[in-house]
Amino acid sequence: MAFALLLGGGGFAAWKLEWFSGNGGSVSFGKAPASAAPDAGKQSPGAPSAPAKPTGDPDVQLPAGPKSDFKQTAKLDDGTIIAKTRLAGAKSGFEGDVWVWTPKEYNEAKYEKSAFPVLIALPGGNGFPANYWSDRSLGLQKAISEGVQAGTSLPFIVIMPVLNPDSKYYYDGADIPGQPKMGTWIAEDVPDFAKANFRTYKSRDGWAFMGSSSGAFVGMKTVLQYPDRFKAVIASGGEIVPDSPLWKGHQAEMDANNPEKLAKKLIDTNGPEVYINFQVGTKETGKDRMVKFQQQFGKGPVKTTIRDIQNGEHNGWHYVRGMKEGSLEWISKVLKAPQPATG
Fold this sequence. Notes:
Elements lengths: L1 H7 L17 E2 L32 E2 L8 E6 L5 E8 L6 E7 L16 E5 L17 H11 L6 E5 L20 H16 L2 E2 L5 E6 L1 H12 L6 E5 L14 H5 L3 H10 L5 E8 L5 H11 L4 E8 L6 H19 L9
Helix pairs in contact: 2-8, 4-6
């Protein structure tokens, strides 16, 4: 990782220690609503003495609780925090780590009654015991912040769960019979956790995925499985069909987690529109699978685009570059923005 290279160089600048300042400390996201108890959150500096008027949007869902215990894992240059908590999935029965980041707008007084769109970021590789999107060196959170300032990105809440229950197998983000219910973890427990702790939208207009490699597959598959809950996905360098060795002997269940079959079902039933933005580097393989999927299933309610990342390879740094070059703007156009309070 980039941190290892920096530390190994022996010239680790003193100011970069700010990256780790406060790591391990407790973190509280957002300020308390005016009607909340005094200890429900910390009021941000410069907040008005009188509470802001609510937006009046019935789609806004305030945190339902119970509140999770967050510990800082990284600090960004703009002062925003990446933090981690341990989540015991009530529906899946799986317990794992989840990292979160909120943009600075989340703490601004004018948005204190507004919901924010959620981007669930899924890693590739083992996806255990960490989610590499929580590493600030990849620049995902910085790309979003810069996009907000440039007017090309919404200020997303980024939720980064572990993808797999161990590093031995890949579980396709699915409930494979006899295995940990990772499909329920991703599609239900993680969103429930976000709703418990953050101001989110009730409708699918505020929910999306991004992921790379195996995480791209899971994000795309989940959007196609639950188009009533999730609206869009940025799928970078991903696979198209399930391929876990644990599916052996469970063909019907595997088919129920196959994006090709899920897309066909959505087209046949004229289901809700979903948006899939493939990203692929020009120096990696796999674009042929994306083109084939687009030709066969990119019709009706299944809206697909393919973004080429020039000189891009199969890694997170290049996928973030693709997001900065256009994919963040693409997904921001199909999701719902936070609304400032009136008055």
